[in-house]
């Protein structure tokens, strides 16, 4: 899958179209919605049924109210979901969305670098069945085909599954969560069991398989000029967990492991997510066609599956440095 969050922020429309044409099919007020417009204009060049279009509806937010016409706080309720979908359809200039996901939960959960649950932050939230009923209406209208979640926990996944089963509502089919060599524990601890095909059969769409570009190795380069346009330098504080000294040290170890086995670090990182049995798809992102080519070539050219000795090396590093981006 191709992630597009850089479109309209770090990329021009032409760059976006070039990447979308090559690919085989941090939000702010000034650029919000531009990604949809770029994709929508590009989609005119190909048959609609040749593209699987996935997008999201925002979760709870007191800061991103500009995404709605008349809201001080964003919620995952029927009004907000409907408005989000209608605006996306208009920008995409299409009749339907293949996969609609909740970007992050309506309730409080630890997010984006926060590791542990803080019970004092609990708040009232939109009931799970109410959220699903809103999606059901959109599915019945033919505007959405399937639904999923993102940045979700085991509790949330199970509540959505139970609400769907008990009330005959649509079942979530996917979960888009952070998963890579530097961030394994949040998913592997128990979500992998919940989402297993023999249990609730929910596919993981692994985002940031290169840890925001960290696992390309470019931040190991001491030449700042080469990386000043890169995400972690353009947006101070963004994904800062990957800038930790321990994360960089661990990245260096994976770089050496890849080199020892004749692989690039990108091949190692993308091969890891590709070969994980619980991963349905990896979401790669790029800010140039060159990066996109490198990602796709690495995904396709790394040994399938990675050799046992490479996997052993990965597990050896993991035992020493479990999720260095969080701990």
TrEMBL record:
This is NADP-dependent oxidoreductase domain-containing protein. The keyword Cell cycle does not apply. InterPro entries: AKR, AKR_Detox_Biosynth, NAD(P)_OxRdtase_dom_sf, NADP_OxRdtase_dom. GO terms for molecular function: oxidoreductase activity. Residues 37-299 form the NADP-dependent oxidoreductase domain. Keywords: Oxidoreductase. It comes from Spirodela intermedia (Intermediate duckweed). SUPFAM superfamilies: NAD(P)-linked oxidoreductase. Transmembrane segments: none annotated. The keyword Oxidoreductase applies.
